[in-house]
Specification:
Length: 77
């Protein structure tokens, strides 16, 4: 599967979100809010929104991975 720049950006945002949620779950520490002025600041809200949109976009990657895997198996049997 060839990785496109948009896919890589979305995956990076997903990883940032996952790390942030891990910090919240384990230590009750919101890194994004701490770095960008609280949960109510506009920059924090933009980052949260981009992470959420990236998560929705990455749902489409399941179809791409499955398609690529099936195509590889058919050609190499």
């Amino acid at each position: 599967m060839r990785i496109k720049p948009f896919d890589c950006t979305a995956l990076t945002l997903i990883i940032i979100g996952a790390i942030n949620w891990g910090l919240i779950g384990f230590f009750q520490f919101d890194l994004v809010a701490t770095l960008f002025g609280g949960m109510g600041s506009w920059i924090s809200r933009i980052i949260y929104a981009l992470v959420g949109l990236s998560g929705l976009y990455c749902l489409t990657l399941y179809g791409k991975v499955n398609y690529e895997d099936n195509r590889f198996v058919r050609h190499h049997k």
